[in-house]
Amino acid sequence: MDAAPTTAVAHIAREASYQDTTPGRYGDPVNDTLDVRRRRLLVAAFGLPVFGVVVAGCTTPRQAKQPAPQPAPDADARVRWRAARAEESLLIRHAATVERHPELDDVLSPLTAHHRQHLVALLGEGPLPRLATLQLTSPSDTGAAETEGSLVVDLDAVEIPNIPDKADDALGALRDAEIDTADTHTDGCLHAAGPRLATLLASIAAAEAAHHVVLETS
Amino acid sequence: MSTPAPATTEVDAIQAALAGEHACVYGYGVVGSHLSGDAQATARRALGAHEDRRAELREHLLAMGAVPEAAEPAYSLPFPVTDAASARELAGLLEQRLAAPYADLVGAATDTTLRGLAAEALRAAAMRAVRWGVDPTPLPGLDDRIEPHPPPPSP
User: Fold this and answer.
1) What is the DSSP letter of A102?
2) Is B19 exposed, middle or buried (0-12, 13-18, 19+ CB in 10 A)?
3) Are A36 and A27 spatial neighbours (Cβ–Cβ below 8 Å)?
4) Among A59, A113, A141, A203, which one is most buried in terms of CB atoms within 10 A?
5) Could you say which architecture CATH assigns to the domain A4-217?
6) What is the ipTM of this complex?
7) Model pLDDT for residues A169-203, shown as the tens digit of each residue
């Protein structure tokens, strides 16, 4: 288990530049089933090709992995967990916003890419207790020999935020979410025991406060 | 992430942030003289914020028994500032550069008050940089200074 997170993080980092530009990337938000929609939003949010997403509860890899011992949490595990969870939620909101308002993609995609980098950096800081929605695994964990890493996602735990009908309102909601997340990270920075994590959280908070400014002027 | 020099202490990190604020205060003097109207008012507010921060850093150093570094009489500018556009560009660059010493100070601070000050200053610098027209970056203060993640600690 030692080397696993690094492998998976490297894989996600490479895939962060993945862009699916095919039309209909965001599917049909009205007629698709909830799980299909969740899965599509996760692919959009995390920039992963679809084979990287494993649906929890109906795959043997996840079942097989369950008894694996969790790493002992260190002093900062809770701070990292909260920060990674906040980034996850923000990424999903980004994807859901573009799903509802595709015309915002140009404005949002560079910012979404930043959040993927934030999440990768946070996950690289140390082992985490399982996130509610997202867990990185290595090929040896999943047996998926053709991939170097994958996401194990508990789809039922993915909450899709309500996105306002008007694009301006949707941007406003995202602006609020950016600054709320920045506040979460600033708070985490003050509670972190490790100086390296404190520095990372302060920097991520600064990036998100700057996103707030970008969205103010968009 | 940043690799602090071996001798880096909390005092060194505060002095580095103070030196950054000195340069910033000097730079905003140049910036303000080439702007007018709202932009000049924005520059003046930013200058005031940097002067306040500088005073806070000095107080911290004095409280720790250290002598705050003085400002240089003049600073060389990275490019000639001749008009409003180059003035805005300089303002953005000043803020962007200031992020790095504050990121270091977040890591070096041993008390929450100082860490909070540094985190807030980093955040404010990133926001001002974008307001002056700098493209947002993923990790202000750490961009281009990130080392590969160390292997996760053994359980």
Assistant:
1) G
2) middle
3) yes
4) A203
5) Up-down Bundle (1.20)
6) 0.90
7) 999 999 999 999 999 999 999 999 999 999 999 99
In angstroms, rounded to a whole number, what is the distance separating the alpha carbons of residues B64 and B75? 28
- Identify all chain B residues contacting A121, using CB atoms and an 8 Å cutoff: 139, 146, 149
- Match 């095919």 to its residue by tokens: A22
Distance from CA of A126 to the nearest CA of B (A): 5
Give CA–CA dist A189/A200, Å, rounded.
8
List the 87-116 stretch of B: residues with Cβ below 8 A of A.
99, 102-104, 106-108, 112, 115-116
Per-residue pLDDT tens digits for A3-55: 333 333 433 433 333 333 343 445 555 566 777 777 777 777 776 543 344 44
Sequence ranges of the domains in chain A: 4-217
Domain B10-131 architecture: Up-down Bundle (1.20)
Amino acid at B26: Y
Cβ contact B138–A118 (<8 Å): yes
Alpha carbon distance A1, A11 (integer Å): 16
CA angle centred on B140, ends B79 and A210, rounded to 5°: 95
Q: Which of B85, B114, B149 is nearest to A136 (CA)?
A: B149
3-state SS class at A152: strand
Q: Is the distance from CB of A212 to CB of A175 less than 8 angstroms?
A: yes
* Domain regions of chain B by residue span: 10-131
Contacts of B136 in chain A (CB under 8 A): 110-111, 114, 207, 210-211, 213-214
Q: Look up tokens 């890899």; give the residue.
A: A61
Which of these, A189, A107, A96, A214, lies nearest to B122 by C-alpha position? Answer: A189
Mean pLDDT of chain A: 73
Query: Which residues, 6+ apart, have CB-to-CB distance to A81 below 8 Å?
Result: A128, A129, A131
- Cβ distance A203 to B108 less than 8 Å, yes or no, reads no
Residue where the block lists tokens 């990292």:
A80
Amino acid occupying residue A172: G
Structure tokens at A200: 């990372």
Backbone angles phi, psi at A73, to 5 degrees: -70, 140
